[in-house]
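WARN no homologs supplied; continuing
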Amino acid sequence: MKKISLALFAIMVFSLVSFTANADETTGVAAATPETPAVVSCIQTAIETRDTAIVNALDTYATAAKFALTTRKDALKAAWALSKGQERRTAIKNAWVAYKTAIQTARNAFKASKKLAWDTYKTAAKVCKPTKTQDNTNQSVDNTL
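OK structure emitted
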């Protein structure tokens, strides 16, 4: 048991020494290889393309959502102007069904556009061949849009 513990301790110490030897003296973080200006420019272009596409998709979604809300408002107001109860209920139901469909369509289109923007970015970033500093772990933040 003591031999196993000693071996594990030796491995931990060796790992710590190896990490410290490769770490930046000021931050304690492993030093990254600086990117060439061409790689930086390439990644910046990929980011510009991705985020511009997401902004445009968001604008398109906002326009579609505003149109759906305006259409719903007008349809519900017209439905409430109907004098017969059954016709009014049908018109109200139809207004909500049409609104739900329009919003779902707009959301699906936005999600597809966002996914395409990220997929295009990933492909473009691979072409740039950056070092291992490339990090897409925060990509999920866009899922809250």
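The radius of gyration is 28 Å.
OK
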